[in-house]
Amino acid sequence: MKRKRTIYFDSFIILSIFLTCFFSQSVFAQEESDDVLTTINEALKQYKLGEFAGAISNLDYATQLIRQKRSERMQALLPEPLSGWQAKPATAQALGTAVFGGGVTVSRDYYTNKGASLSIEMVSDSPVLQSIMTMLNNPMFAGAAGGVIKTVKRQRAMIKYDEKDRKGEIDIVVASRFMVTVKGHGLERETLLKFAESIDFDGLARN
After folding, report:
1. Quick check: pTM over 0.85?
2. Which of 25, 33, 144, 167 has the maximal Cβ count within 10 Å?
């Protein structure tokens, strides 16, 4: 009986060592393939060695890489064109902290063969975010700017539409951090709203 317990205990120790090595190698492999983690680890080594300038440079670079990854995730949230519409490839731009506080901007242009056009832009940490939020929280301010307040997929939005010129704009603030602008020309108000409703606001809020 004692011998059997010893065998079980030895087997448990071997299994524990195997799992520890396996997961350690998995984490190491992940760090090796992740530019952000590699750069941060390099900055940490430089900091410990007192190489502060190099550490700062690498941390700034890691921050820029994170913004790029964030912009890629935001870019994937730009909707596909509605029926009868076509779309150009989405574009993304991650700005440094010296420009608009290091925000991320993604956009995509849509068009029809009949001349209608529309663009969707998502901006994180936009410098105009506060002013738009003020308008969204006060219909009187929105009205003075030529807009009306409406809820789009549980998000408060300000809509401006010119029936004569068939052009309009929808401004939406998501999670108090993102500014979404849907702007179109040569289209109906309903089409403008449909494009706005096709955006994954919940996914954007998780960014």
Report:
1. no
2. 167
